[in-house]
Amino acid sequence: MAKVTILSTETIKPSQPTTNSFPSIPLSLLDQLAPPIYTHILFFYSTYLPEIPEKLKFSLSQTLNYFYPLAGRIRETGKGKLHVECNGEGAEFVEAQVADATLESIRQGSAVELFNELLPTKKSLFDFRETGPLLAVQISVLDGGGFVLGVSISHFIADGASLSMFLNWWSHTARGFTKNLSPATLPPRFDCAAVFPPKEMTNITFHKSSSEESGPNQEVAMRCFSINSKAMETLKQVGGTTTQSTRVEAVSALIWRCIKRVQAGNRLSMSHCVNFRKRMAPILSNESFGNMWINVEIPELRTETDSHECIEQSIRRAVRGVDKKFVRMKAQEMWDVREGKGNEQREKGTDGVEWIFTSWCRMGWYDCDFGFEEPGWVTCGITAMKNVCLLMDAKDGQGMEVWLWMAMEEMEKIENDSEFRLFATSLAD
Fold this sequence. Notes:
Layout: E1 3-12, E2 24-26, H1 29-33, E3 38-45, H2 52-63, E4 73-76, E5 82-85, E6 91-99, H3 103-107, E7 135-142, E8 147-154, H4 160-174, H5 192-195, E9 220-227, H6 229-238, H7 247-262, E10 268-275, E11 293-297, H8 308-320, H9 324-338, E12 353-359, E13 377-380, E14 388-393, E15 400-407, H10 408-415, H11 418-423, E16 425-426
Helix pairs in contact: 2-4, 6-7, 7-8, 7-10
Protein name: Acyltransferase
GO molecular function: acyltransferase activity
Keywords: Acyltransferase, Transferase
């Protein structure tokens, strides 16, 4: 059995003092509404060199000069609001050694339980009152060769796109590209609160959503499945030829059809997380750092339709309908629910099962080359969820990996679903 031993833990601070021009940054309304969790991601590299830890630490300290809120701490303002105190306290950096594990054994699913030990933060919930770091990193060297880079970041200040922005900037810095920045590495903008001003919370208490309710007494299975490029092309044709299906639409439709079979008898609903930076008017910058996403329910899927094409079209219509007006309406609805004013608007969550779909595709995870090599595998490290489907690019950019969190009994059914097996294979196979 693999064993992880922590060798050291230290704090990495910005290499330059944090500017006094921005002593604090308010959380935006959507930051306030973000899940009170850490977002985790794991990068697997086949080659390890002794100089890697120091190079990562040095480049991280340089990167924090630009992403200085990540070196700060979340504090209460005393007026029912939260802000990031940009005090330069730093990010956490952990070094570890892993015995009796190889990159292949972990990827094949025999050591998924090890994921939590490969992350610097061993918990999913983020409590700002503990005054812990907003960013933590762990490098775990495998005695079988290679290493794993685990990253944990508070969802209060970053969505998936923001995490990708930070990691790509950090890897560029490690490669020495900071003096010749490409358009993909423009400085981050911490302007979300200007677009979505925060509101005064009557009670700064955060509750887990249904997607996070996977405590130790619940048998929730976490599985990864692969859909290769050939299977993907076949799947995209299932939805018809009227409009070319995207990979996310095609895979979401497949998973939804399978979920409806294994959870037959339940009243099901699907929501897709949508990055709306390019859907606002005026368009927001890709460099806007923070929570710029919204959950979009697909109401048509609450009916009994089983047509793959109809499911795809319903998802497409709902996602394309996201604009400035919709985002502001949805944000207000979420705020009302949080403050206990609009519970009737959450009807879908009171008598059925709500599934959350989210896509981490096309975020450039495999571009995170810190000067040694590109990662051989990138995957999420999130464990404490239920009824969640997360989609990620395969390394070739054509296939896809599907992460599912669901009840153990239902997971066994979906693994044996005949349609599912036509397109997807378990990494453990």
